[in-house]
Structures are given as structure tokens and as C-alpha cells.
Write a structure and sequence with these properties.
Length: 232
């Protein structure tokens, strides 16, 4: 456990250093950028170690795995849990039962189901609207031209609070150009909804590009926890 703690501490320090360097290059305060450590495929014990190292935000992308992990955490109250995986409507109520923030709302059907689930649970849920940055839509997300309408729907819902946008860079092409597009979509939404200020973008391989294009939240897995099993 001590060895794993040291490994996580070293990797975390390396990522924080990268964020600081990128923030300096972008002429932004590093304190404006929140790190979400993506712990999918890694055990609850790693989340507890990360919490002990000062991590306050974790990301999970599979409902079943995430909910089981929540139950095993000894430091659940120390972390904010972000659900970042693709959503199916039959999973929405379950995700709503444990997630603090859902970043992957990408269609009206999901938005409406989540609003009802949050209302039934008697809570407000913070959400981000996921934007598709590739034409195939293979990584989920609403098309940029439909983002404003979905944002309006989310803001008009009774139990959801729209915080901003999330996206994954396309597998091919220049991530910086994709994040620039995301920033435009984010600004369009913010013109009507000034509180929707978050831009969740950037992962292990492209966080510098995301910081240059205004990301407020980074989702980093591999660079901190190591390679995931090849399953997914
Ligand atoms: C897995 C995942 C990440 C983290 O990716 P890494 O390359 O491991 O840093 C970020 N965002 C989403 C939506 C993910 O599913």
C-alpha cells in the first residue's frame, strides 16, 4: 500500500506540475483549473489513497463499477464524484443516486429522465452538457448546433443545475482545434446562462491543449493511476 501511495503521489505531482506549466503558458492562474482524477478500472483503495493525497474530485464512467466502488470507499465524503460515462435512460436513476455531478448529459431524453430522478430523490444535481467534437458522434455528445437548445432545456428543468460543458477530443486530428470549438460552444451557452461557466476538457494526453483553450476542469486517469486493463 505504501508503494502504491508513493506511486500515486509521484504521478499526481507530475500532473500538477504539467497543469501549472500549461497555465503559465496560457497566462491563467492554475488555481482556476480543477483536477478530476478518473479512477475507472481502479479499486476503491486507490480512491482512498488519492483522497489522502488531497484529491477532491474523482471521475467514473461505468455505472455498475462506480456504484460498487462508492460503497467500498472509506473516504466517500472527502470526494466529489463526477459521472463521465455515456448514459442510457435505464441507468439514469441509479447514477443519480450516488453521483454528485453528471458530466455526460447529451440528449433531451436523458435530461428529462435525470430531472425526474433527482426530483424523486429530493435533491438537486449539477450537470454538464456533453458536446460532440467529432462528426461520427462515437464518443457521445450533442452536436454543437443543438447545444443551445439542450442547455435551455436543462436550465428550465426543476432539479438540475447546468454548470457548463464537457467534451472528449476526437481520436483523430488536432485536439487544440477541437477544444477551441468547445470553447465557442461554451461561450454561446454562457451568453444566455451566465452561471454555466465550467469547461471540462483535457485528459492525460491533451491537457495542455485544453488549458490553452480555457478548460476549467481536466479529467486525468492514466497519467496518475497507470494503464488500465485493455478491456476498455
Ligand atoms: C477515461 C476517461 C478520461 C481519462 O482518460 P485518460 O486518457 O486515462 O486520462 C477522461 N474522460 C473520459 C470521458 C473518460 O472516459
Amino acid at each position: 500500500m505504501t508503494a502504491r501511495r508513493d506511486e500515486l503521489a509521484t504521478n499526481l505531482a507530475g500532473v500538477r506540475e504539467r497543469i501549472e506549466r500549461a497555465a503559465r503558458a496560457a497566462d491563467r492562474p492554475a488555481s482556476d483549473i480543477e483536477l478530476i482524477v478518473v479512477t475507472k478500472y481502479f479499486p476503491a483503495s486507490d480512491v482512498d489513497l488519492l483522497a489522502g493525497l488531497g484529491v477532491r474530485h474523482i471521475g467514473e464512467n461505468k455505472d455498475q463499477e462506480a456504484s460498487a466502488k462508492m460503497a467500498d470507499l472509506t473516504r466517500r465524503d472527502d470526494v466529489t464524484v463526477h459521472f463521465i460515462g455515456q448514459l442510457q435512460s435505464n441507468k439514469v436513476a441509479h447514477v443519480t443516486s450516488y453521483a454528485d455531478v453528471v458530466q455526460s448529459v447529451d440528449r433531451p431524453k436523458i435530461a428529462n429522465a435525470m430531472d425526474r430522478a433527482a426530483e424523486r430523490a429530493g435533491r438537486r444535481l449539477e450537470v454538464l452538457l456533453q458536446v460532440a467534437l467529432d462528426d461520427s458522434g462515437g464518443r457521445g455528445g450533442v452536436a454543437p448546433e443543438d447545444a443551445d437548445a439542450l442547455a435551455d432545456l436543462l436550465v428550465g428543468s426543476g432539479s438540475l443545475t447546468l454548470r457548463g460543458v464537457m467534451a472528449v477530443a476526437p481520436r483523430e486530428g488536432d485536439p487544440r482545434a477541437a477544444f477551441a470549438r468547445l470553447r465557442e460552444v461554451a461561450h454561446g451557452i454562457r451568453a444566455n446562462h451566465p452561471d454555466a461557466t465550467w469547461i471540462s476538457a483535457g485528459m492525460s494526453g491533451d491537457l495542455e491543449d485544453a488549458v490553452l483553450e480555457g478548460a476549467t476542469h481536466l479529467r486525468v486517469g492514466t497519467a496518475i493511476l497507470g494503464s488500465r486493463p485493455s478491456l476498455g
